[in-house]
Amino acid sequence: MSAVPPRRADLSALDGYHSPQVAATVRLNANESPFPPPESWRDDLAGAVERIEFNRYPDRSAAALRSALGELHGVGADEVFCANGSNEVLQSLLLAYGGPGRRALLFEPTYTLHAHICGLTGTEVVAGRRDAGFRVEESEALRLLAETAPTVTFLCSPNNPTGRAEPAGLVRSVLEHAPGLVVVDEAYGQFAPWSALSLREGPGAAGPGSGLVVVRTFSKTWSMAASRLGYLVADREVVGACEAATLPYHLSALSQAAGVLALRYTAEMEARVALIAEERGRVAAGLAALPVESWPSDANFILFRPLSKPADGVWRALLERSVLVRNCASWAGLPGCLRVTVGTPSENNRFLEALEESLR
Ligand SMILES: *Cc1c(COP(=O)(O)O)cnc(C)c1O
Fold first, then answer.
1. Dihedral through CA 334, CA 335, CA 341, CA 346, nearest 10?
2. Is 153 near ligand 1, meaning CB less than 6 Å away?
3. Rounded to two decimals, what is the model's pTM?
């Protein structure tokens, strides 16, 4: 008789990775943009939806979206791969280049989904540690590269949840010594002072044949988390491998249209980023006046550690005031830490007020 069998044993171990969606009026837990995309983008999209032939499969190669992204970054459309959020981009990379018998190197604390997707794809994780200031030590990175020969090395720049961009020198050095792909996750790239995309040009460039993979998303700076759209820029061979690892027609006509139209509003995106960067300075100054330790950020979030009260209690006290932040206290290497997303000016005020009360 048919019965639900036990699930894959290694999958059960991966339970509990997803952050709960808790109701709160001030939601500063997922590093989303607090601002919607431009109203005219919505109108453009409504017009595009009217023209979609819904009875037909979408363009399997997402040609228009890839060439628009190629134009944005000055690369060929064949050096761009798009998927449903950068998480699916990362999954495609690991399906193609990870798997049983292969290793991926990452440096904790970092974005938990990197290890999670390794688990889903049966890729062994080699977890290096960051130093006390959450920096990747070059000597430690080179030692692990030489000892473990990973097919994939993850860097996250700016690093979620600690906030700093990886220094260009470190990324260059890792690229020089890594035997496989170097995946630089730039989900917050537009907030950062530099991009690994710049390493594709100039002397000693990570050009054709290089294992440099830069991953970006529409979820944060483009204010389009609901669209589920992300992409990578890499050597065409990597793009081809990701395509081979992806289901046919994985990217809906809706997502493709949303992305193409968004790229017409780059200036608006940059203005939102500038405003959030300004607010980040204000939130950082507010935190500096409270009994918390906090870390500098090149992104749209700030990591902090309450000093006067345990983090779990502060997290709950904030939620009682309808302010939701991310509780990172149980993450590797982040005891007692919380992470707050920079929101609108009024949300940030509410957060700082609620935090002040919660720390009393
Ligand atoms: C938010 C985030 C992503 C985004 O994932 P999507 O699937 O594109 O929404 C990717 N990487 C990091 C480091 C992030 O913080």
1. -160
2. no
3. 0.96
